């Protein structure tokens, strides 16, 4: 039940980022809603398709579809009153990343897959929606930028797996994982939390690669 | 049977757009044919994968594959004699959009899914092939441009669902839906049919979002 | 067994290209590893999802996942000592293309699909990972460039199908196919092997298409 609600909030958060992201280009209401829906439902769709579950989650339970649709419409009108859209974009994106990653990790674990698969699918589900959004709105993908993005998702998924191992089915396992991801992302956004330079790939001068 | 033929024509139309789109960059015959095939088969593939049907349509019936292949080869040589390629591109794209959307909507309805799923999958099938084409040929996706594109697909799918509700299995239901989409797209292309400005998302000055 | 090893080598090769490709932008260790893994596992994932096999290969056998992960980490540190990264990128890419195409063609044939499907899926598996890599790192897709890329994959897949028809289950069928692809790619890279101009699509002057 908790996972259900967290999943819904994650969908709403990602739908908002899809709408704000589209603002980089003149788009009409319905195209924006479409981008919002693709952003919010994309990650979980890829997860379910790869895991070969019986039915993709929003086909089985269309309330997900409605939440994605209504959040996008709401966000379309709501963003007009927002002063600092970039900040809302990054907060909502981090929030969605945190929720999607832990919900997916829990779901995959509960389907009986190994921890390695659970962590992989958790990270993929968390980052894929935003990746598609960035590609479609012609922005360099956030997850592949120089910010601390994929690592928090990985650490959060890892925490959920470790907690489930030691205190299985504890109510707040997913909350702890989501908090870890969100806090690390906040540090990344505000404090420029970053890897030491020997863990960065630097292009050499006079080279294209 | 009618749906089968309409689907084939849609594949041919989208294959042509894939070939013309590739002309923005120097490409060889086989790469162009590949782009044509991905464009024409991509939307339906995503639909079938999400709906978990028994087999993706072109794997089950390879005549779709042949139509996509031969139309792409034909288009490769055919475009040389076309004077106004941009117009042909937009007409073929609108034609493909119209046919794919209604064929998918009918197919999903006939598989027993709800109208909400049928409309969603109809729109996704109609726009996804062109989206992939635009991404791969490095053009801003048409569907996310400022033109009237996703809305006609949505209205056409809605019309098909309403007609199927009231006059089920009527032969021409899909024809009416396709006509609606195609005519709305023609208006969009030639008359600049567009949303009122309060339904558009405007970037604010001095803001990136 | 041979196919298994070839598949693993192909994954390692593509992981390296993903890492080198990411060098065009400042990225951290984990994002680069993610791009390497998506590049190396993406093509086969699309193949398995379209063919509706029982389980996607790296979900069933997580050793693929580990090979992709470890090769990416290794490549991240390894590329620092490489002088000519562009050449390594093109060699590893050609190597991965050759191996993935023939492994996929063999696999699809052995699942009982028709030669037409086997060739199509072979080419798709070979080129899709690199396509995703190029899209995510904002480079024009190699396969859609003016270089000889999709054609070698097609010819190699065709050779494998022909060999399997005439000398079924011969040990080296896939080796011959891979060699053909790799050699044709080497010619394309070093000698500019190319189609005659009547098989190229040329943009006309003063036209956008």
Structure summary, number of beta strands of chain A:
2
Oligomer: homotrimer
Through-space gap between termini of chain A = 48 Å
Average predicted local confidence, pLDDT of chain A: 85
General shape of chain A: globular
Question: What is the total number of structural domains of chain A?
Answer: 1
Largest interface: A-B, 34 and 34 residues
Query: How many helices of chain A?
Result: 8
What proportion of the residues of chain A form beta strands (DSSP E)?
Answer: under 5%
Q: Helicity level of chain A, as a percent range?
A: over 70%
Low-confidence runs of chain A: none
- What does the radius of gyration of chain A come to? 17 Å
Order of helices and strands of chain A: HEHHHHHHHE
Major β-sheet annotation of chain A: none
Structural class of chain A: mainly alpha
Write the layout of secondary structure elements.
The structure is a homotrimer of 209-residue chains.
Chain A: H1 2-22, E1 27-28, H2 29-51, H3 57-60, H4 63-78, H5 85-110, H6 115-136, H7 150-166, H8 173-191, E2 200-201
Helix pairs in contact in A: 1-2, 1-4, 1-5, 1-6, 2-4, 2-6, 5-6, 5-7, 5-8, 6-7, 7-8
Key terms for this structure?
2 strands, 209 residues, 8 helices, homotrimer, mainly alpha
Concise synopsis of the structure shown:
The structure is a homotrimer of 209-residue chains. Chain A is mostly helical.
Structure description:
The structure is a homotrimer of 209-residue chains. With 209 residues, chain A is mainly alpha-helical. Chain A has one domain. Chain A contains eight helices and two strands. In chain A, α1 runs antiparallel to α5 (85-110), α5 runs antiparallel to α6 (115-136) and α6 (115-136) packs antiparallel against α7. Chain A is globular. The N and C termini of chain A lie far apart (48 Å). The mean pLDDT of chain A is 85. Chain A binds chain B through residues 19-32, 34-35, 45, 49, 54-56, 59, 62, 65-66, 76, 79, 85-86, 89, 135-138, and chain B through 49-52, 113-114, 116-117, 120, 123, 127, 131, 135, 140-141, 143-146, 148-151, 154, 194-195, 199-203, 207-209. β2 of chain A pairs antiparallel with β1 of chain C, so a sheet runs across the interface.
């Amino acid at each position: 039940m908790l996972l259900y609600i967290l999943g819904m909030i994650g969908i709403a958060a990602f739908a908002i980022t899809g709408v704000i992201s589209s603002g980089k280009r003149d788009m009409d209401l319905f195209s924006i809603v479409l981008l919002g829906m693709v952003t919010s439902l994309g990650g979980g769709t890829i997860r379910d398709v790869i895991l070969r579950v019986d039915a993709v989650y929003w086909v089985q339970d269309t309330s997900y579809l409605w939440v994605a649709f209504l959040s996008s419409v709401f966000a379309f009108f709501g963003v007009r009153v927002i002063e600092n859209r970039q900040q809302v974009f990054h907060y909502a994106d981090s929030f969605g990343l945190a929720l999607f990653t832990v919900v997916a990790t829990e779901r995959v674990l509960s389907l009986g897959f190994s921890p390695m698969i659970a962590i992989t699918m958790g990270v993929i589900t968390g980052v894929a929606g935003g990746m598609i959004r960035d590609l479609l709105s012609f922005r360099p993908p956030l997850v592949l930028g120089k910010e601390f993005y994929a690592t928090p998702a990985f650490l959060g998924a890892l925490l959920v797996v470790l907690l489930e191992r030691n205190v299985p089915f504890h109510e707040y396992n997913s909350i702890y994982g989501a908090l870890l991801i969100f806090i690390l992302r906040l540090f990344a956004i505000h404090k420029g939390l970053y890897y030491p330079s020997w863990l960065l790939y630097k292009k050499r001068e006079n080279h294209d690669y």
